[in-house]
Structure formats: C-alpha cells, structure tokens
Write a structure and sequence with these properties.
Layout lengths: L4 H11 L4 E6 L6 E7 L8 H11 L10 E7 L3
Parallel strand pairs: 2-3
Antiparallel strand pairs: 1-2
InterPro entries: BolA, BolA-like_sf, BolA/IbaG_stress_morph_reg
Family: Belongs to the BolA/IbaG family.
Pfam families: BolA
C-alpha cells in the first residue's frame, strides 16, 4: 500500500517540528515522491546526516510503503 503525501509530510513534521515541507507526487501513483525539507535542525550537519534525519522520521517505510523519495534539504534563510 502506498503512502499519501500528507502522511509523509505529517511524519516529517512530527520529527522536525520547525520544518517547512513540500511534497510532490512525481508520477501520480502515490509511490514516487519528491520532498523538499527546510529545517534549522540541519545546521552543522552534512547533507547525508540531514537526509538521515528525514529518513529516520519516516520510520523505516522507505523501500516498503514508500517506494521512492527524491529528497532535498536546506537550512532556513
């Protein structure tokens, strides 16, 4: 079963409460998403560490309920 975009957004916001999250369904199939996440929690972390924070927020659903996620992260400006 695929995940809904609002569920992905809610999980990320639960782990990173200050996050600005934009989710885009890339294929219209509920399986392939792009996420742009902006959070102060990324300060001082490498890009890999930033992505790990987001993946951790998704609680192991990557590769299962969530087939593909094109992820970009950034600090607030």
């Amino acid at each position: 079963m695929a995940m809904a975009a609002d569920q992905i957004e809610a999980m990320i916001r639960a782990a990173l409460p200050d996050a600005e999250v934009t989710i885009t369904d890339l294929a219209g199939d509920g399986d392939h998403y792009a996420a742009h996440v902006v959070s102060a929690a990324f300060a001082g972390k490498s890009r890999v560490a930033q992505h790990q924070l987001v993946y951790k927020a998704l609680g192991g659903r990557m590769g299962g309920e969530l087939h593909a996620l094109q992820l970009t992260t950034a600090l607030p400006t």
